């Protein structure tokens, strides 16, 4: 259930103390991407904890979230790999750019 990163590859760890030290010391390495779009911020990170709710399923270890200062909107997407997270981040950013460019 606990993971660290070796480059961009998740590595499962069983020692919670080892995991906690890694998590504390590698904050910047956990950031996949960050984009500011006006009042919105799109953040994609390595969670380091499996968020899959399916026993035996593929670990879900990455998350994109949209934060907005202007309103209470939110959006969350989760992924299994660093590469999926990069693609997901780009899709969310592109979607938000399209929405902002569309006349009301």
Describe this structure in words.
It is built from 2 helices and 6 strands. Strands 3-4-5-6 form a 4-stranded antiparallel beta sheet, covered by helices on one side. It is elongated and about 50 Å long. 29% of the residues lie in helices and 35% in strands. The mean pLDDT is 92. A hairpin with a 2-residue loop joins strand 1 (2-6) and strand 2. It is an alpha+beta fold and 104 residues long. The protein has one domain (2-101).
Strands, helices and their partners?
Layout (H helix, E strand, L loop, with lengths): L1 E5 L2 E5 L2 H10 L5 E7 L2 E7 L15 E7 L6 E5 L2 H20 L3
Antiparallel strand pairs: 1-2, 3-4, 4-5, 5-6
Give the tally of structural domains.
1
Radius of gyration: 15 Å
Describe the strand arrangement of the main beta sheet, using strand numbers: 3-4-5-6
Question: Major sheet: size, sense and barrel closure?
Answer: 4 strands, antiparallel
Overall, the morphology is: elongated
Q: How would you summarize what this structure contains?
A:
This protein is an alpha+beta fold and 104 residues long.
Provide keyphrases for this structure.
104 residues; alpha+beta; four-stranded antiparallel beta sheet; two-stranded antiparallel sheet; 6 strands; elongated
